[in-house]
Design a protein that fits this description.
- The protein is globular and about 55 Å long.
- 22% of the residues lie in helices and 27% in strands.
- By secondary structure, the protein is α+β, with helices and mostly antiparallel strands.
- The protein is built from seven helices and 16 strands.
- α3 (90-98) crosses α4.
- The strands form five sheets. Strands 6-5-4-3-16-15-14-13 form an eight-stranded mixed beta sheet. The protein has a two-stranded antiparallel ribbon with strand order 1-2.
Length: 271
């Protein structure tokens, strides 16, 4: 969510019964504007909030040259001092899925994660990582599976760069009701021609990303239209707390995550 538009879209972003407070928005805009200036980001986004026992983590995203490849994630517990989140290693991504205990709010804290799939005498059964590494793995998993945009919000330029589309004017009512109108913000994982074969109105500058209608199982996204059909909401069943909204026929759109960082692994058995 563009940090400079938080006041405008505040009424639409109600996640898990939590609405962004006026105090939080003011503090975010002040501190993130400074972070954007210091790092020369072209766009600054508020990503969301990870619950922690001693003080929640707030996450932000800075974008420079490429809106997919050049995303830098930051975190803070005091809304003043932002630290760069390290790139998650594959091991940390896997271990973060096994952690069921809450975050504490101390990034330097060393945590033990038990892999019950390993035999008892296996030295890899219990591994120690920092809470910062666990957080990096958690956020990387959420981003890969649930960080999304509407078709047309991001476009690929002839030189290959992906940029935020300043001429995005929103989806139509019929488009907003289709899962294929929403795309993952990540490097494509499916074959490049998958969208070409599924869309009659294929446009490579917009359809280079994976659409969420291909996610497994069918039904892992909850799409609803509210406020007399003027607002589309998408909620991830895998990651409770991740909500995407779009005000139909307007540029207003974005996502926000507010949750404990735990994936619902039971989704395949629930839908």
């Amino acid at each position: 969510m563009n940090v400079h538009k938080l006041w405008e879209v505040r009424e639409y972003m109600n996640v898990n019964g939590n609405m962004l407070s006026s105090e939080l928005i003011s503090m975010l805009q002040n501190s993130l504007t400074m972070l954007q200036t210091e790092n020369h980001f072209t766009h600054m986004q508020y990503w969301g909030q990870l619950y922690a026992v001693d003080g929640d983590y707030h996450i932000a995203v800075g974008i420079t040259n490429d809106a997919v490849a050049d995303r830098r994630y930051f975190y803070t517990t005091d809304l003043k001092n932002w630290a760069l989140l390290p790139k998650a290693k594959r091991r940390h991504r896997l271990l973060s899925l096994l952690a069921t205990f809450p975050f504490r709010g101390d990034p330097t804290l060393k945590v033990k994660i038990l892999d019950e799939a390993q035999e008892e005498n296996n030295p890899d059964r219990c591994q120690v990582i920092t809470e910062e590494s666990r957080m990096a793995g958690t956020i990387a998993n959420i981003c890969d599976e649930a960080e999304i945009c509407a078709r047309g919000q991001l476009i690929k330029q002839p030189d290959g760069r992906v940029v935020i589309n300043s001429n995005f004017y929103g989806l139509t009512g019929s488009e907003a009701q289709q899962l294929k109108s929403y795309l993952h913000i990540r490097p494509p994982q499916h074959q490049w021609n998958s969208n070409l074969l599924s869309r009659q109105d294929y446009n490579y500058s917009m359809d280079f990303l994976d659409s969420i209608d291909q996610d497994i199982p069918n039904g892992c996204w909850n799409l609803s239209l509210e406020q007399t059909g003027s607002i589309a909401y998408l909620k991830s069943l895998y990651w409770p707390g991740m909500t995407y909204f779009h005000q139909i026929r307007t540029p207003d759109a974005g996502f926000l995550y507010i949750g404990n960082g735990r994936k619902n692994l039971d989704v395949p058995f629930l839908v």
